[in-house]
Amino acid sequence: MSLETRPKVASTRHAPVRDSVTTINADGSRYFLYPADAPGRFMTMRQQAAYGLIAIYLLLPWIPVNGYPALFLDVAARRFHFLGLTLSAQDTWLLFFGVSGLGFALFFLTALFGRLWCGWACPQTVFLDHVYRRIERWLEGDAPARRALKLAPMSAGKFLRRAAKHALYLLVSLAITHLFLAYFVSIPALWHFMHAAPGEHWGAFLFVFIAAGILYFNFAWFREQLCIVICPYGRLQSALTDDHTLVIGYDACRGEPRGKLRHGGGGLARAGSGEAPASSLAHGELGDCIDCSRCVQVCPTGIDIRHGLQLECIGCAACIDACDEVMAKVKRPAGLIRYDSLAGFGGGITRWLRSRTILYGVLMLVGATVATFAFSTVRPMNFLVYRMTGAAYFVSPAEVRNQFMVRLVNKRTVPATFTLAVAGLPAGVRQTGFGVPVTLEPLGESVSPLILLADRKDYTGPFKFTVLVQDAGRAFTLTREVEFMGPDARLLREEEEEREHEEKTREEKHD
Amino acid sequence: MNPPSSHQPPDDPGIKLREHSYDGIQEYDQRLPNWWLYTLYGAIVFWVVWWFVHMIAGLVPSDGARVDAEMAKIAAVKMASSLDVANDTKFWEMSLNGVFVDAGKQTFNSLCIPCHLPSLRGKSENPTAVGPDLTDTAWLHGGTPKEVYVTVSKGVVAKGMLAWEPVLGQKKTAEVVAYVLSHHQPGEPITVEVAK
Predict the structure, then answer these.
(1) Is A308 part of the contact surface with chain B (CB cutoff 8 Å)?
(2) Do A256 and B1 touch (CB under 8 A)?
(3) Rounded to an integer, what distance in angstroms lies between the CA atom of residue A244 and that of residue A347?
(4) Residues of B in contact with A308 (CB under 8 A)
């Protein structure tokens, strides 16, 4: 079919307007979209990106690093493994860097590149566009065929197609959620769960099946409603983008005024559009846009990108591919719809370096530096020194005593031996406990007392000291600074003097 | 060239614009998507039913009752496996049982030797040791097995001895006591001296 005689269903029946959401009808019901195919270079690149991301998602639980799956959030044992780095519950504080680091990176990248995540990396797009829509395309055909199938009366063929499609949808949803569970229990445990009765692990079972149901509902019906109504990231755009952020847009300077292409003569003769009086437009003064509405037909969120940057636009670049294809056919340069900034579309130059990007970039670098430092302090063991329950210190005739408990945690899957030493003690202070190295079983922990005794004669008051734990095999040391608490030295001396005075008077009485 | 600005009447005459102007901004009056509305209505219905079932009809045990039930289960398990810690004879029997005494020795060596020393002789062996001698017949806080158990499980807070039962549990505490008692004989004289 030629461009002119192709049925323009989308552009006449439910043309997008700026004032309402195309997919929500005036009575509140859903207007289900049937986006047309838009092959092109962006579609190819996005597909490659999507398959790469899906491959990572599928393979990560299978790849062992340092004896554990590459990404394994072992909630049951409270150990979290990231590419060989094992974090235990005591390392949860590092989550702060994870979250804030992602936040700063988000701000920085969005300020520069806009909604790149939405169209290229978000699981919603990756799974919907490249898995579920491909199933739909395979079973139900292209957009006009799908629309026709919807309108057709129920028949055996229609039922079978639909049933097969939904069966595949459910299968894919279950696969996704089962694999998601593997990130938390590991692949061997997942395999075991799948063979065991649901009753043995109700929580996991319910989670997987409810999540699969939600995914199925989302990818079969809900689709772009999530991007438009639910997802908060989409809404953050208006705060994070400005006139120099890269967005997908329509070059109105080049494209307007639009006009239908009329075949005749050499090929570039154009007819004016119906509304404008022919006399005000000289020949050849129309813009490049031939109003074919292809960009509207391919849009998965139902907007007309020629209206400008809109909330619904998820940056999937389908309209770019569609328009480029049409421009090639009418022998005009591509890029009528393209990635550019609003300033660029206005005829200016995109300023990549501006106060916003510099600020976000600096924050991100600072955050990255601090995060690197924080993560570098993680060791294959944890240790904690805390005061024993009870009084902070004990005073006896000979000494002042502090009692501590030391907790050693071995995060590795092999036994480990640790020696504990105390440094920074003033004269007259000795330690008991931890005379011999401690051996911990894999993933084991031990709590043992450490007692410090300060001779009263040499006691000068509270002081700080360091506890060092050294790993026998790996040559790393962890230190903790601890405070020895006690009474003011003068109080003890006064007590001594009083006692000596009492003894002297008693002796004198004897004599 | 920028797209036309937005303070014009809506493109589609079917879209209502409210009259009132808030500093030049007028509100649309369009219908929310049905899926959103029905989720909201469903949530309200769910809440009413939930409130009724939980608070009014009491068909489902309240959260407090469920916590109590779980705690009772834990207490029952504890009671079923608890030892009679007021029975001196039982303790003497435990102190003769190699398994009990070995388990107690392991616990003792990991937790008690900084103060009481590996030989259990404490201050007798080294006057600067923190803990008293556990092998002699002089006891500070009572020398019968059940009194020794009370000392270990409740501690002597004023002197710095930790209450060990919350940390170890009843079984391990009893094992440690059995280990200590294995250095004694039933029926030996007990002197209770309270230190100054």
Answers:
(1) yes
(2) yes
(3) 12
(4) 2-3
B1 inside domain:
no
> What is the tally of helices (H) and strands (E) in chain B?
9, 4
What pLDDT is recorded for position A14? 75
H-helix or E-strand containing A203? helix A202-217
| Residue A361 to residues A38, A120, A224, Cα–Cα distance (Å) | 35, 22, 31
Q: What is the pLDDT of residue A284?
A: 63
Q: Which CATH class is domain A381-495?
A: mainly beta
Chain B residues with beta carbon closer than 8 angstroms to that of A225: 33, 35
B118 & B149 share domain: yes
Q: Which two tokens stand for residue A230?
A: 């639910």
Do B157 and B90 share a structural domain? yes
State the residue range of the domain holding B25: 7-81
Q: Where in chain A is the domain with CATH 2.60.40.10?
A: 381-495
B140 three-class SS: coil
Query: Which residue blocks in chain B are alpha helix, DSSP H?
Result: 34-51, 63-80, 88-96, 98-111, 113-116, 122-125, 145-154, 165-168, 170-181
Does B67 map to a domain? yes
pTM over 0.80: no
- What's the pLDDT tens digit per position in A39-76? 999 999 999 999 999 999 999 999 998 788 999 998 88
Residues B106 and B51 in one domain: no
Q: Which of residues 40-69 of B touch A (CB under 8 A)?
A: none
**Chain B touched by A24 (CB under 8 Å):** yes
Looking at the complex, does the CB of residue B34 fall below 8 Å from at least one CB of chain A?
A: yes
Count other Cβ atoms within 10 Å, centred on residue B191: 9
Tens of pLDDT along A446-494? Answer: 999 999 999 988 888 899 999 999 988 767 888 899 999 999 989 888 8
- For residue B12, give the nearest of A20, A430, A451 by CB distance: A20
Q: Are residues B109 and B176 in the same domain?
A: yes
Distances (CA, A) of B114 to A170, A454, B126: 62, 15, 12
The answer to whether B1 contacts A229, with C-beta atoms less than 8 Å apart, is no
CB contact under 8 A, B2 and A26: no
- A1-47, pLDDT tens digit by residue? 444 444 443 333 578 988 889 999 888 999 999 999 999 999 999 99
In a domain, B119, yes or no: yes
ipTM greater than 0.90, yes or no? no
Amino acid occupying residue A420: L
Measured on CA atoms in the order B15, B20, B25, B30, is the torsion positive or negative?
negative
User: What separation in angstroms does the CA of B24 have from each of A54, A294, B27, B30, B117?
Assistant: 48, 35, 10, 19, 84
Under DSSP, the state recorded for A253 is H
